[in-house]
Protein 1
Amino acid sequence: MDSTIGSQLQTCKPSNGMLGNPAQNGATILDSNAPPSVVVADATLGRHLARRLVEIGVKDVFSVPGDFNLTLLDHHIAEPGLKNIGCCNELNAGYAADGYARSRGVGACVVTFTVGGLSIINAIAGAYSENLPVICIVGGPNTNDYGTNRILHHTIGLSDFSQELRCFQTVTCYQAVVNNLEDAHEQIDRAISTSLKESKPVYISISCNLPAIPHPTFTREPIPFSLSPRSSNKMGLEAAVEAAATFLNKAVKPVIIGGPKLRVAKACEAFVELADACGYPIGVMPSAKGLVPEHHSRFIGTYWGAVSTSFCAEIVESADAYLFVGPIFNDYSSVGYSLLVKKEKAIVVQPDRVVIANGPAFGCVLMKDFLQALAKKVNRNPTAFENYQRIFIPDGVPNKSEPKEPLRVNIMFQHVQKMLSSSTAVIAETGDSWFNCQKLKLPEGCGWCCRYEFQMQYGSIGWSVGATLGYAQSVPDKRVISCIGDGSFQVTAQDVSTMLRCEQKSIIFLINNGGYTIEVEIHDGPYNVIKNWDYTGLVEAIPMVKETAGQKRFAMKKS
């Protein structure tokens, strides 16, 4: 593959074959003799998109090359400050962008038309469920193929190129199909700004013959985004705060519980401000672990119904008022909808809405504004926390292992606990690692804020391998500790090689259960047993003994 900017496979070249003539379908190409003030050689769509990604904080793009995205990848590689991370498959590229977005606030991935897009869509759906801004870029058909009734490769054999787009419409908040340079600038900027504002993934399809073509709209540096800050309705905010303060100040033993939407609302600090002011015991929903500081003096653990941290459920469910901030009550987080909480005792605060008991509800009230204002109105009441202190018993220490005794999970996690510090981050895979990692106590600097991650809403097994790759790439100063079951690892194991290629220092604790343990607990059967691998042998086989021919070729080109 030729890595020079502007090179393309024949199918992705302008039909006229050169830059001196007008292209079809509105992809205007100015004469090569035009004065520099009108257009310059690098004023291209590919360069504009690459610079936009750098501008919003993306330093690494996760990709799988394909013949529809090669020139686009050339521009990413050429852009200072942007690194292309080649992944083993599209699913892992999407998971890596998910993990990256959890740390840096936005992630990006690039794949090819349809075969790549439909492969990555599962990861994009997971990012959508977790409210993560991921820019999913797909190399699309040549502009000259639209409307021709041609059947292209990498499709299902129809001349309709919209199948991929239709699939992405349900798992992204905005879709841009760029097959015309006249409005490409506007479409790209609108897609990226929508992703940032909505905190959801977006889909951008770029025709494969467009990235290297100069156009006047790209002659200048991208104008910095100016995203208008959202603000609360002033009267609604005042009314919501007054109603909530009255409700809480009447309670004898209120509690406060943080939920996963604290992240999307960017309200973690406001939550702590309120917690400091009110004196209530602080719990956290399982999917919000890492968003609330566990070193806080009144932190009582994870509220997860019957599988809560010891004594946490007793305090929450015996309270006469609970303030849920950013919750998601799904079948996972509610343990099959078995939580013993009553709606008439609850205040539920969502990113832009507050509901008090069975009513009233206040819209256009931002969570951050509400929490900060409530902190100034609520009376301090430590009664529920004093009750917790009376019943609390410290956790016991697991019995020591006997010589030659098989390693027990509780002993292993005792060692994991000792490894945690302000320089580590924890990623927990879907399955039994959820429950084991919930018991870890995050030290100061590790869990404040967002240094513990897992995918509770979507729960796609194998997510953690790609997410570890992306997360570690975004925070090279931290060591990522991932806890992954063998069944999940086998789904996405290939990209351990990419971690080694990027010289990451992550640690993977692979819990070899001999199958899908969490499924066994739900319903056992022979389908839950998987083939055992030589996992250490697998990893030892990955490091390259010598340079490949491809590496030598590109090393010579660079020199």
Note: The radius of gyration is 26 Å.
Protein 2
Amino acid sequence: MHFTQDPKVEIGLSDQGTVNPAFGGPDSGQSERIDMDGAQTEGLEEGLEDQNKGLDLVYSINDRPPWYLCILLGFQHYILAFGGIIAVPLILAEPLCIGNNNAAKSQLISTIFFVSGVCTLLQTTIGTRLPILQGGTFSFITPTLAILALPKWQCPAPSAMSQQIQNATGSLLIDSDEVWKSRMREIQGAILVSSLLQLVLGLSGLVGLVLKFIGPLAIAPTINLIGLSLFIEAGKKSGAHWGIAALTVCLILLFSQYLSKVEVPLIAYKDKKWEVFQYPLFKLFSALFGMCGAWLVCFLLTIFEALPSQPDQYGYTARTDVNLDAVTSAPWFHVPYPGQWGMPTVSVSSVLGMMAGVLASTMESIGDYYACARLSGAPPPPTHAINRGIAVEGIGCILAALWGSGNGTTSYSQNIAALGITKVGSRLVLQTAGLLMIILGLFGKFGAVFITIPDPVIGGMFLVMFGMIAAVGISNLQYVDLNSSRNLLILGFSTFSGLVLPTWFHSNPGIIDTGIKELDQVIVVLFTTHMFIGGFFGFVLDNTIPGTEKERGIKSWRTKVTEEGSTMMTDRSCYDIPFCTNCLQRFKFFQYLPFLPSYKSPELRT
């Protein structure tokens, strides 16, 4: 399925099952090979062409498709990432106490699209330079919900809120938006500081050292619990009207699975003539078609008054006119800017809790780099490219925190899968997608339109999306010996603990009382973050209980990387930073920096 944020964290693998190029895009003649860095080496050309024969690519990583094709394919990537990006502000709206403030929701949606576009441009230009799209990450959702569940951040009752806003004379004391903005600033501060860890891991090259101790048995429960911990959110939205939610699920399954091999004939103009080609339309846009289909049904039911018209009646939120005023009241243009919600606030408990999300996001991105390189006609990413990619993701999360999207950014695996389907792995296409996200993020009414999506339709999307995230976590176990009682114990205990402990802490508020308020908050946030509990126990037990590398699944990972690396070309100039190659080679100092193309390991220096 290519519509959810698919946190692939199978580190070091380049072809991960769900990203196999199953379909071919429209055929094309020989394209002009132009290296955007200006460094066109004969070895790179020959290597890319040999590899493209195996992948049957129409455009590989350094190719420049025509501008109109860049816009079309870039918009396609935008639509593919739509489901994962739009889900983040919709999930956070309730715990942030935004309530029915549709203007605030619209601004959040515009902000996260804008920041995602900026981060995509950064990653494709100076990061890994792979055609990889950046967007909101579910890895940050779990710690965010844990932070907002603290007593100080729980939403006040409507009566209490009105008392906070007005004094005895009835005049306003504070901005009515201050209730949710104060919570947003806390999340901003947590993401801002914790993302420095990701930046340090990338710039220092420590990410490689960390990966040596993280195996599938640490990754699987971590990612699995991201999906499992969000079942309450999916239930709340779906429960607004289970019939509409079920319809949404059925439509998504219909387009993504049952009709996935049905190719639709489309017309294209090429070589001064019109041609008909087959295209996997349903497979690529399954989430969009499923959501729009259910949205249309809700619209028709609203028009014919088949849904309840009273807010207290079951099924009322399935109407499409509930939040219609959001579109009419939203401004045509809204320019997101840093600090638009105020100065971020920082607390130790929030930062430590968010670090669990940062580490999980880092792990999932590394696996995506290998998969993206494989499907875009590039060699496996070298160490400096991975380090730089993680550092740029850290910068992206810092920018997201400054702008106030309520989330960070990470690579999107469903867009990587689209590379294999469209057979277009051009970097320029993803840079175009980034520009489109920035431009559309500036239109206030564009973001407001998404607020009118009925709750049960969103709930149906959540049911499939969060289920896929949980399943992706489990898929990491394919390289582990599941006949080993050691592995079963680690997997079962870490996953079960990640469900039990947070539930118990939520059921017993105030049970932790060490006498130090800050320490109490740290303990509560960490032990109510499902993914932290699962990942922590999985990491500790996997590295302390005796077991062979084959039994732990680490050997299979390394074997896969070695095999693919031996079959790929060795010219990796496509990972060079543009306009900096000559300067980096001129000064010896730069070979000591692990995030630059001129970096040499200590063994090579001697």
Note: The beta strands are 134-135, 264-270, 273-279, 410-411.
